[in-house]
UniProtKB/TrEMBL annotation:
<keyword id="KW-0769">Symport</keyword>
<dbReference type="InterPro" id="IPR036458">
    <property type="entry name" value="Na:dicarbo_symporter_sf"/>
</dbReference>
<dbReference type="InterPro" id="IPR001991">
    <property type="entry name" value="Na-dicarboxylate_symporter"/>
</dbReference>
<dbReference type="GO" id="GO:0005886">
    <property type="term" value="C:plasma membrane"/>
</dbReference>
<dbReference type="Pfam" id="PF00375">
    <property type="entry name" value="SDF"/>
</dbReference>
<keyword id="KW-1003">Cell membrane</keyword>
<keyword id="KW-0472">Membrane</keyword>
<protein>
    <recommendedName>
        <fullName>Amino acid transporter</fullName>
    </recommendedName>
</protein>
<keyword id="KW-0813">Transport</keyword>
<keyword id="KW-0812">Transmembrane</keyword>
<feature type="region of interest" description="Disordered">
    <location>
        <begin position="1"/>
        <end position="32"/>
    </location>
</feature>
<feature type="transmembrane region" description="Helical">
    <location>
        <begin position="138"/>
        <end position="160"/>
    </location>
</feature>
<keyword id="KW-1133">Transmembrane helix</keyword>
<feature type="transmembrane region" description="Helical">
    <location>
        <begin position="101"/>
        <end position="126"/>
    </location>
</feature>
<feature type="compositionally biased region" description="Polar residues">
    <location>
        <begin position="1"/>
        <end position="29"/>
    </location>
</feature>
<feature type="transmembrane region" description="Helical">
    <location>
        <begin position="64"/>
        <end position="81"/>
    </location>
</feature>
<comment type="similarity">
    <text>Belongs to the dicarboxylate/amino acid:cation symporter (DAACS) (TC 2.A.23) family.</text>
</comment>
Length: 238
């Protein structure tokens, strides 16, 4: 505390004396503090991460345990639905939120990425770091593409034996091919001049001259799409 003869006279120092009443002997020292406004951290230079992360993303509050909980719920629901083999309308209603989410991502991700790349490239050009950051970005993207291709190919070879890829041919437009066997065991073939002859040694699966395409013009042969009819020989037996 300080004592002053005139309590109302301001002082020139940083500290000032203040009296409660004009005739009070109690003097209180008051000091002023200069509050400093914190300056925002400004990055000295731009880097590759500036192409991917903006200032608003750095302030985003992402809860890790919520992400893990949602992943666990999704895995459990998938295992449960695959165990009970839910199909039909129930499966479509359950898959509806996921399909809407994927459709929304497909609708928004392309313009969002385009706008982000344009803005970031503009900032890089304005900062004079376009050539340096662009070359590093191309190098990193190339390395990531090669690494992802190598990982995918490796896992494909590892798990290839666990999948049985059975390709079914379309038999609707398949032409029936026949071979004709002669009385001596040879096969009927077509010669180069168009004549028909029986040849003893013919590979019926590889020689196209020994294969004849069936063209059922009268519908005599029964196909797999028609029902079999039972024939009776009693009217012809005498």
């Amino acid at each position: 505390m300080k004592r002053s003869s005139n309590p109302f006279r301001p002082t020139t120092s940083e500290s000032s004396d203040f009296s409660i009443t004009p005739r009070s002997n109690q003097q209180f020292e008051m000091k002023t503090r200069s509050s400093k406004i914190p300056l925002l951290a400004v990055p000295e230079r731009l880097d590759v991460k500036d192409m991917l992360i903006s200032a608003s993303d750095q302030r985003a509050n992402v809860s890790v345990w919520r992400i893990c909980l949602a992943a666990a719920v999704g895995i459990g629901a998938g295992v449960l639905l695959s165990t009970y083999e839910v199909d039909g309308d129930w499966a479509q209603w359950i898959a509806l939120p996921g399909n809407l989410f994927i459709s929304a991502l497909k609708c928004l991700i392309v313009p969002m990425v385009f706008c982000s790349v344009v803005v970031c490239m503009g900032e890089l050009v304005a900062a004079g770091k376009a050539a340096q950051i662009g070359s590093r970005m191309i190098m990193f993207f190339t390395m990531a593409s090669v690494a992802s291709s190598a990982i995918g190919t490796t896992f494909g070879f590892i798990f290839a034996h666990t999948y049985n890829a059975q390709m079914t041919a379309d038999e609707s437009n398949t032409a029936e091919q026949l071979t004709f066997r002669c009385h001596d065991g040879s096969y009927l073939t077509m010669t180069a001049n168009g004549a028909m002859a029986c040849r003893p040694q013919v590979n019926v699966t590889a020689d196209l001259n020994a294969l004849f395409t069936l063209n059922d013009t009268t519908g005599f042969f029964t196909t797999s799409g028609t029902e079999f009819t039972q024939l009776s020989l009693l009217p012809f037996v005498r």
